[in-house]
């Protein structure tokens, strides 16, 4: 227990004349937030209890205010987790402004590839849940903090779930540590039970009624339907901003473009001169922060209406004031793990009822609103799951296992997860890490495994990078890893597909032809972008996403620095070396040997692991039908596809991963036969 009582009258209660007008205005609006009257209860409860669960409507001030209450109450090292990078950055900025301090000093943030905080001065840090876990590697009791807030706990991300388990075990060891679990929906019982009946503070928000409208018939194309819905609202409904939920950056950019174009054309044609201007603003993680900031600014006072086209980040993480209409197509991009192929992919899938309710709620923050659901009432009632499945139950656990091993948790199966994953999933993850040589025969972390945990990347990618100097292509490998960690860089506008494809082929021929593979193409694009001075115009002419490339450059610099720290020399065979791409493909295979497929018949390939039939994704530049390929990901759309593919030579499989391609490990079937042929081929050489 703290022996000194923190002052309950915060310094800012007394209006200090030195503060700017902006500061005073912010202060005034902060006092209006629903969470504000709960300030003293929160502080008092934490004097007597280690854990507090705080539940409140989105926009009630949990994320921005509660951490400030704690700083004012005298806690000196406060961390507040966010599942999303964009929210961590955005909120940190806002809070620094509210407190009238400089971002990166008293208030900061840490996200993957970016740390804007000060080791000594920062008192309040917003941090992604993944990065806080990483901090725990060197400091398993998180002694750097005296108060930790797990925000957006209702999202049940993998990392938040692991942190909850970890903190639950740390609390008895550190009686002075305080934990606040904050959540938006009403699943609070689960959190209070998990933390041994922790006290609950319920912040009742002021919510205005939201009318729900369904579609009479299912829609065929939700993007088109969304566009129509926004246009109709803009034409027919009284003023008020619109929030449209889509699933990813590409969709969002293209719908924003379409909306701008439609409004411009309608306004230009004389008959529709009465149509007000529409300001279409995207909101997603990869957007540069100044662009993200635009969604918070009021539209020009000439009757312009704002439409914000956002990913799920606007569901509960980021609140935008002034929204009166919500358009909800009912989809979200989420991680799905296919236990058969052991491949994790991002798929567009239906949201849950709880999500649909949250989304609708965004329309009723400032006055009564309307939510247009682009699905039928019957599908809402019958098809949507009640709540979103926790991520831990639909993930490849390899990274979690690596993390827990690094945190020196010995007994994985009995680790206190809120929703324990089935033991088989753990077995699969252990097996995968064993194949990667991250774990030894006894299941202990190897030196390589420990270094893999240090990199904020998937285990195969970490392995590829950490041992890339063996192939003398660590320079190429960091570029590739950066390109694989950003969004897709190739743009393919609906009306210019042929031109876009031609531009891609031109870049490909510079990389040495299609045989070099998709991985080589990514490196080639990265280098060409640098050669052309990171020019936006060049990107535009070559149908490349400028923003994604800029992000890749940033990531590559971070990775190069990390490798330097881990003493992996950055080397290249040279841009003209004839074996440059060959080395890169070997290096990729060194990490991704579990993602290998062989040609079977027609256009189909078979994944070695599970004999699943797959096709090369139409975006591939590989045209020569190689017998064996390594692939980066599995995508399920109309067919099973493998995306980002390169040829590998069969003898490499046995050289680089003999333990994995040992035919005796496979049941009789196509894979075993293919591996047998491979063995014979090798013996005959
Ligand atoms: O976490 P919770 O959803 O409860 O609310 P919050 O994120 O703390 O937001 C509280 C208020 O701050 C909302 O009314 C937001 O509109 C406002 N806010 C803002 O204007 N600009 C930001 N960058 C962040 C929050
Ligand atoms: Mg929040």
TrEMBL record:
GO MF term (any one): hydrolase activity
EC number(s) stated in the UniProt entry for this protein: 3.6.4.13
Residue span, Helicase ATP-binding domain: 43-204
Pfam families noted in UniProt: DEAD, HA2_C, Helicase_C, OB_NTP_bind, WHD_HA2
Annotated catalysed reactions: ATP + H2O = ADP + phosphate + H(+)
Residues in Helicase C-terminal domain copies: 218-408
Keyword Transferase attached: no
KW rRNA processing (keyword) present: no
InterPro entries associated with the record: AAA+_ATPase, DEAD-box_helicase_OB_fold, DEAD/DEAH_box_helicase_dom, HA2_WH, Helicase-assoc_dom, Helicase_ATP-bd, Helicase_C-like, P-loop_NTPase
Record keywords: ATP-binding, Helicase, Hydrolase, mRNA processing, mRNA splicing, Nucleotide-binding
SMART domains referenced in this protein's UniProt entry, alphabetically: AAA, DEXDc, HA2, HELICc
Name this polypeptide is given: RNA helicase
């Amino acid at each position: 227990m703290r022996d000194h009582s923190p002052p309950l009258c915060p310094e800012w209660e007394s209006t200090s004349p030195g503060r700017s007008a902006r500061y005073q205005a912010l202060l005034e609006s902060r006092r209006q937030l629903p969470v504000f009257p709960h300030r003293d209860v929160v502080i008092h409860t934490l004097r007597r209890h280690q854990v507090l669960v705080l539940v409140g409507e989105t926009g009630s001030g949990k994320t921005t205010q509660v951490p400030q209450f704690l700083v004012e109450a005298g806690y000196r090292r406060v961390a507040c987790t966010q599942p999303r990078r964009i929210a961590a950055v955005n909120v940190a900025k806002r809070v620094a402004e509210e407190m009238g301090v400089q971002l990166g000093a008293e208030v900061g943030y840490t996200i993957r590839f970016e740390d804007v905080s000060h080791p000594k001065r920062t008192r309040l840090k917003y941090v992604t849940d993944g990065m806080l876990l990483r901090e725990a590697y060197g400091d398993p009791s998180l002694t750097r903090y005296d108060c930790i807030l797990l925000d957006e706990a209702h999202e049940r991300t993998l990392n938040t779930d692991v942190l909850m388990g970890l903190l639950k075990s740390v609390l008895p060891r550190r009686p002075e540590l305080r934990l606040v679990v904050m959540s938006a929906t009403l699943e609070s019982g689960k959190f209070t039970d998990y933390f041994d009946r922790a006290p609950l503070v319920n912040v009742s928000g002021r919510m205005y009624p939201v009318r729900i409208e369904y579609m009479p018939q299912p829609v065929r194309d939700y993007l088109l339907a969304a566009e129509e819905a926004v246009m109709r609202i803009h034409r027919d409904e009284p003023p008020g901003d619109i929030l449209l939920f889509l699933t990813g950056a590409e969709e969002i950019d293209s719908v924003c473009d379409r909306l701008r174009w439609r409004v411009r054309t309608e306004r230009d044609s004389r008959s529709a001169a009465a149509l007000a201007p529409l300001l279409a603003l995207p909101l997603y993680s990869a957007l540069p922060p100044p662009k993200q900031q635009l969604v918070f600014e009021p539209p020009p006072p000439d009757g312009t209406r704002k439409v914000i086209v956002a990913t799920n980040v606007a569901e509960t993480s980021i609140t935008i004031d002034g929204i009166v209409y919500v358009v909800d197509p009912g989809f979200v991009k989420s991680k799905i793990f296919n236990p058969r192929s052991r491949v994790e992919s991002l798929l567009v899938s239906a949201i849950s009822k709880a999500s649909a309710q949250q989304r609708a709620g965004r329309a009723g923050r400032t006055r009564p609103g309307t939510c247009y659901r682009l699905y039928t009432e019957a599908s809402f009632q019958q098809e949507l799951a009640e709540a979103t499945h926790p991520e831990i139950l639909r993930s490849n656990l390899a990274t979690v296992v690596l993390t827990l091993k690094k945190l020196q948790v010995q007994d994985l199966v009995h680790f206190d997860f809120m929703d324990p994953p089935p033991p088989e999933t753990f077995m699969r993850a252990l097996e995968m890490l064993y194949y990667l040589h991250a774990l030894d025969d006894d299941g202990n972390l190897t030196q390589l495994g420990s270094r893999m945990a240090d990199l904020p990347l998937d285990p195969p990618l970490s392995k590829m990078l950490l041992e890339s100097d063996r192939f003398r292509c660590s320079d190429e490998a960091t570029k590739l890893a950066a390109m694989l960690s950003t969004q897709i860089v190739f743009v393919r506008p609906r009306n210019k597909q042929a031109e876009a494809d031609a531009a891609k082929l031109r870049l490909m021929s510079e990389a040495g032809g299609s045989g070099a593979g998709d991985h080589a193409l990514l490196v080639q694009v990265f280098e060409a972008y640098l050669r052309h001075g990171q020019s936006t115009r060049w990107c535009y002419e070559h149908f490349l996403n400028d923003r994604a490339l800029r992000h890749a450059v940033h990531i590559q610099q971070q990775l190069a620095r990390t490798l330097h720290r881990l003493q992996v020399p950055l080397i290249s065979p040279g841009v003209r070396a004839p074996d440059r791409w060959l080395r890169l493909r070997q290096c990729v295979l060194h990490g991704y040997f579990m993602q290998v497929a062989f040609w079977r018949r027609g256009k189909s390939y078979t994944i070695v692991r599970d004999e699943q039939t797959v096709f090369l994704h139409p975006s591939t530049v590989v045209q020569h039908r190689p017998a064996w390929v390594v692939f980066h990901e599995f995508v399920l759309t109309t067919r099973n596809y493998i995306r980002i593919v390169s040829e590998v030579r069969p003898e490499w499989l046995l050289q680089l991963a003999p333990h994995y391609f040992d035919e005796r490990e496979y049941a009789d079937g196509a894979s075993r036969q293919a591996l047998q042929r491979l063995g014979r081929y090798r013996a005959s050489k």
